[in-house]
Amino acid sequence: MHTHEKKSYCAAVITISDKGYRGERADTSGPAVRGMLEDAGFEVVYTSILPDERAQISAELIRCADEKHIPLVLTTGGTGFSQRDVTPEATLDVVERETRGIPEAMRWASLQITPRGCLSRSAAGIRGKTLIVNLPGSEKAAKENLAAVLDALGHAMEMLCAEGSTDHAHG
Predict the structure, then answer these.
(1) How many C-beta atoms lie closer than 10 Å to residue 93's C-beta?
(2) In sequence order, what E strands does the chain have?
């Protein structure tokens, strides 16, 4: 491990799914996202499953950023066109600064795979020293979208944690 010390950052994965929350459907996208993060050197320190409820999603994002000090929070689910899909709105309710390039890159990558890629409403932004990124709910789309930005997320962590104090870099 001494080739070049790469800093490990903590992350959270939050699945947004009414059926997953009620135990009616197994969550496959959350574990898939977690696996990709761990393979990339992130330490996933927190996971949860929530219903498609805007206030609950916002509260969980605030908890991860303000109380748990987790530098990267990925959500999966709730980014589509159904009335219940409110993850981007819940995210925009709590971020202080949007990071529009991340969802743009994910949609661009999705469009290389399917013309429906433009239908993702994913948002991303910064709250304090936490980057929050919405991924689609399907395991396949979540993995494709994360793959499109995963390298950039490591650099984002370096920039976020380099601003002033870095004592929350490891959660």
Answers:
(1) 15
(2) 10-16, 43-50, 72-76, 97-98, 124-127, 130-135
Name the nearest CA neighbour of 157 among 11, 5, 12: 11
Rounded-to-integer distance, Cα 63 and Cα 159, Å: 22
pLDDT of 69-81, one tens digit each?
A: 999 999 999 999 9
* Integer Cα distance of 113 and 107 in angstroms: 10
pTM confidence score: 0.91
Closest CA to 50 of 76, 82, 83: 76
Provide the terminal-to-terminal Cα distance of the chain, rounded to the nearest Å.
Answer: 22
| CA distance linking residue 11 with residue 119, whole number of Å | 26
CATH number, domain containing residue 15: 3.40.980.10
Where do we find the tokens 């959500």? 75
Domain that residue 135 falls in:
10-162
Closest CA to 137 of 75, 53, 56, 55: 75
Domain count for the chain, please give it: 1
Nearest partner of 127 among 72, 51, 80, 54, judged by Cα: 72
